[in-house]
Amino acid sequence: MLKIEAVIQPAKLDTVKAALLDAGIEGITILEARGHGRQKGHTEFYRGREYTVDLLPKVKLEIVVNDNLKDKVVEAILSAARTGHIGDGKIFISRVEEAIRIRNDERGENAL
Amino acid sequence: MLHRAIKFLFPAALLGICSQALAVAPQLTSADSNPITRAQYEQLQQTIHDAQSAGDNAWVLVSAALVLMMTAPGLALFYGGLVRRKNILGTMMQSFAMMGLITVLWAVVGYSLAFGHGNGFIGGFEHAFMQGVGLTPNPDYGGTIPEQTYMIYQLMFAIITPALITGAFAERVKFSAMAVFLSLWSLVVYCPMAHMVWGAGGILNISGGRWPVFDFAGGTVVHITSGVAALVCALYLGKRTGYPLEDMPPHSMVLSFIGAGMLWVGWFGFNAGSALNAGPLATSAFVNTQFAAAAGAIGWVVAEWLINGKPTALGAISGAVAGLATITQASGFVRPMSALLIGLIAGIVCSFMVFRVKRFFGYDDSLDAFGVHGVGGTMGALLTGLLASGAINAAFGKDAAGKPLAIGAVDGNWHQVGNQAIGMGIGWALSIVGTLALLFLVDRTIGLRVSPEEENAGLDLSQHGEEAYDLNS
Question: Which of B155, B260, B323, B465 is deepest in the core (most CB within 10 A)?
């Protein structure tokens, strides 16, 4: 099992969700997040005072899938979330040791 | 075809009504040549008087409600949006507390101190506990409206004035200290100032004062006193912890936007209501209010567009408020084109004060109560002396030929600029001395500032035990 985490632009959430559904992914967790990578934020002006906003709003997706779905999921996110500009986000993939369904104690891939 | 018939019929009908009205005038006789009796004539006079009184009373009562709306929700939202989210309830409560505290004080003694007969500086106690404030007009204060209408209308001004000051010490003052300080301030600074300018026998009163000052709706009484007090408070209390190194941007421009819109609308009651009747002078003040607010918004936005590169929403609403604060004093004295000019000057100068002067001196007038109201009120006082026109308001009466006497410098009466400066100087002096003394008193007894821990937690939690935005429920 793999956990695929993707940090994306908030505006891209709906297209990414639709692409994942097309790829056959049913379970997804979404977190509202703030952060920055190379995109260093922007400045705002309030009554002539300049404020630097360097932590920008992002959305983070967490999906846990069978190993064989990895490429499909990555491809779906890449195609749906990419604008080609700095700030499009990143994907991280890691191995998951166990998954447990709380309702009936199912384990492993059956719990996904 | 139809509208031609109406065009013909309407004047004919009007003529019919007029001739009927003329028929009952005393010197004329009716068609059957019976003269009307003295009793009928007096009844007619009374009917006319009652009708005028009803019209005036309706407008001033509506205006009173509009001015109250300026404090809450208007000012409460305007200021509330400008602070950080942990302080919005505390900030709004400061305005709302004035609606409670000042109302009670006004009923007990405030109205009497401002509008009772005393000396040139402060009223007496004859109206304490609303004694003698009835439903018949007081010839000194709007001769056609019940005195209680005048009293309640003036109360709304007494409420918003201390509420304006709260912008200077936002995010760092104890609720208890704020309540005591502003209540005392109302009695020590506001009531005497209102008496001097508007009270019968006041030294700055337009009719009969030693130095007649033109202050139509409170540029000196409201904006100079509150704006200068705001500066003194900002200097006395010191900066918010972390200012200016930490970012403290407004937490909701949307709330501020709504609040500013309400201030603009409410200001029609503030200025046009100050005519104390529903006549043409109210129209003049209404028009001037609109013109100055619009020009103020444009002035501020253009200035910041040139300096900072972007026209901001906060700039637009701040400029409108600056234009409104500055036209307040002049609203019933100047021509519409003068109002446009006053608004434009206000927007440009107040933005400069906020952008440059505040930063240069480094004081933390957190929500710019001084930069907008103090500066706007001071400019308004002088601009009124320059631009007041007898054609708009024959404040000094008319000459034998029926021509209004010169009232402002544009009419040739440069003397008035001096009077305005004296009024302004008294407003500044009274506010500085009164505010400092009361701050000292309250600081030594209750303590003005919250502790650093409480400031860090925010006023909402530390002062009120509440949170404005509970995202978990």
Answer: B323
Establish if B307 touches chain A: CB-CB under 8 angstroms. yes
> Rounded to whole angstroms, how far apart are CA atoms A40 and A52?
9
* Total of domains in chain A: 1
Task: Give me the mean pLDDT over the A82-105 stretch.
Answer: 94
A44 touching B (Cβ < 8 Å)? yes
Q: Is residue A112 part of a domain?
A: no
B362: left (phi over 0), alpha (psi -120 to 50) or beta: left
In a domain, A56, yes or no: yes
The model's pLDDT over A8-25, given as tens digits with 9 standing for 90+, comes to 999 999 999 999 999 989
C-alpha distances in angstroms, B82 versus B67, B276, B301, B457? 21, 34, 18, 17
Which pair of tokens denotes residue B216? Answer: 């139509």
Indicate the average pLDDT of chain B: 93
Alpha-carbon distance of B412 to B389, in angstroms, equals 9
> Domain limits at B265?
66-464
Interface check for B254 against chain A (CB to CB < 8 A): the answer is no
* CATH number of the domain enclosing B333: 1.10.3430.10
pLDDT at B34: 73
pTM of the model: 0.87
Domain assignment of residue A15, yes or no: yes
Please tell me which of the candidates B244, B310, B354 has its beta carbon nearest to residue A47.
B354
Residues in B closer than 8 angstroms to A49, CB to CB, are: 244, 359
State the smallest CA–CA distance between residue A102 and chain B in angstroms.
23
pLDDT at B12 over 90: no
So what's the pLDDT on residue B462? 97
Check CB contact of B355 with chain A, cutoff 8 Å.
yes
